[in-house]
């Protein structure tokens, strides 16, 4: 079985490659360290990932129409990654044959679906016969712990990305901020709380699969592990606090990680919450200023926290000048530093965030021995 250093992936994204439904594929390509040999999506065969992500050599990845085409590239792939994150996390029925063919061709399978491929008798038997491994990233850990009100270690800074909707870039913002923090010489760690983040980082927990009683406890020990790995701990957010389907995981991360600060992620141009499986269901996206205040109020029920910046996902605004105008308008509307760290780079926003976090009174007190500033301090 290849180590992560030797992993060469084919990404299966049939009919779904792109920034929304194919966000797992995009996230692994953009931020991961594994070599991606090809993407399988017959509806876009002949195109190249560079059309979406730019002309960097690492994005020179062909999109092909079949597994056989993907296996024809040299060096040959040794793993297949399921590159979609559909609502409900179910395996599309028409993907079974291709996954079985990949297993029988000697490819390890990497899946972030709620459908555990390793528990499927047909897949499991094929994997056993072929000597390959199936990894289900959403499989929960064996730790069943409730939160105990753990305090953050002195000198540590915990930042959680939160958002106005699902699938708008909370992971990407967190990774860009970690990249900027590292470039600035900070000892920074990223805590993955979803399957794509785990594929990128190699550790973490998909908290949306954890039993409800243990979400806060899991978030708590994830934050502790992040503190072991770095002084600046950037926790990947999930869901949104007002999403009718996914608010619980957001609340669990806020109260479990007790962040010193939060970064609000917002996607201008979206009017309603994402319900791709129910197009007639409409729940409007919240207005930023009151939604920011709500996050601080909800966090403060357990430990003080402040939204210190807004990170925009301006992918729906193709004109760069207009995107920058929206960034400036959002900063004026919220009174907070604002930028699109994925489109324009994370360095400027990181400098503002770092200064704001270090200026928070509960952060300063947390560094003083014997101080008591609440659970998060």
In short:
This protein is an alpha/beta fold and 377 residues long. The protein is built from 14 helices and twelve strands. It has a six-stranded parallel beta sheet with strand order 3-2-1-4-5-6, with helices on both faces. Strands 8-9-7-10-11-12 form a six-stranded parallel beta sheet, with helices on both faces.
Topology of this structure?
Layout: E1 8-12, H1 23-31, E2 35-40, H2 50-53, E3 63-64, H3 67-70, E4 79-82, H4 96-104, E5 108-111, H5 121-130, E6 134-136, E7 157-163, H6 170-183, E8 188-191, H7 195-201, H8 215-229, E9 232-235, H9 247-257, E10 261-266, H10 288-300, E11 306-312, H11 320-334, E12 338-339, H12 341-344, H13 347-358, H14 361-366
Parallel strand pairs: 1-2, 1-4, 2-3, 4-5, 5-6, 7-9, 7-10, 8-9, 10-11, 11-12
Helix pairs in contact: 1-7, 4-5, 6-13, 8-9
Notes on the protein architecture:
Strands 3-2-1-4-5-6 form a 6-stranded parallel beta sheet, with helices on both faces. A 6-stranded parallel beta sheet has the order 8-9-7-10-11-12, sandwiched between helices. The protein has 377 residues and is an alpha/beta fold. Strand 2 (35-40), helix 2 and strand 3 (63-64) form a beta-alpha-beta unit. Helix 1 (23-31) runs parallel beside helix 7 (195-201), helix 6 packs across helix 13 and helix 8 (215-229) packs across helix 9 (247-257). Helices cover 35% and strands 14% of the residues. It has 2 domains: 4-136, NAD(P)-binding Rossmann-like Domain (Rossmann fold); 157-366, P-loop containing nucleotide triphosphate hydrolases (Rossmann fold, 3-Layer(aba) Sandwich).
């Amino acid at each position: 079985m290849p180590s992560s250093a030797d992993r060469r992936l084919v990404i299966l994204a049939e009919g779904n490659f792109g920034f929304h439904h194919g966000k797992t594929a995009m996230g692994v390509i953009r931020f991961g360290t594994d070599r991606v040999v090809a993407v399988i999506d017959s509806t876009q065969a002949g195109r190249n990932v560079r059309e979406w992500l730019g002309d960097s050599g690492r994005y020179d990845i062909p999109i092909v129409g079949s597994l056989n085409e993907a296996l024809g590239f040299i060096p040959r792939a040794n793993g297949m990654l399921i590159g979609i994150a559909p609502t409900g996390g179910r395996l599309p029925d028409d993907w079974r044959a291709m996954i079985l063919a990949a297993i029988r061709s000697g490819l390890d399978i990497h899946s972030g679906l709620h459908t555990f491929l390793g528990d499927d008798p047909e897949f499991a038997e094929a994997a056993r016969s072929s000597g390959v491994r199936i990894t289900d990233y959403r499989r929960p850990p064996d730790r069943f712990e409730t939160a105990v009100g753990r305090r953050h270690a002195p000198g540590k800074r915990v930042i959680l990305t939160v958002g106005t909707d699902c699938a708008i870039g909370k992971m990407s913002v967190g990774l860009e901020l970690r990249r900027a923090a590292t470039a600035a010489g900070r000892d920074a760690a990223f805590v993955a709380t979803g399957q794509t983040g785990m594929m990128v980082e190699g550790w973490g927990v998909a908290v949306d699969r954890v039993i409800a009683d243990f979400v806060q406890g899991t978030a708590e020990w994830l934050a502790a592990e992040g503190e072991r790995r770095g002084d600046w701990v950037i926790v990947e957010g999930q869901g949104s606090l007002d999403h009718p389907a996914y608010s619980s995981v957001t609340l669990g991360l806020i109260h479990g990680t007790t962040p010193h600060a939060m970064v609000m992620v917002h996607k201008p141009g979206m009017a309603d919450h994402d319900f791709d499986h129910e197009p007639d269901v409409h729940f409007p996206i919240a207005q930023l200023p009151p939604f920011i205040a709500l996050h601080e109020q909800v966090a403060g029920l357990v430990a003080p926290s402040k939204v210190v910046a807004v990170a925009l996902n301006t992918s729906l605004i193709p004109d760069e000048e207009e995107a920058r105008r929206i960034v400036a308008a959002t900063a004026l509307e919220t009174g907070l530093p604002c930028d699109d760290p994925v489109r324009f780079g994370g360095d400027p926003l990181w400098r503002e965030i770092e200064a704001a976090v270090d200026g928070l009174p509960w952060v300063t007190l947390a560094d003083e021995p014997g101080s008591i500033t609440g659970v998060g301090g």
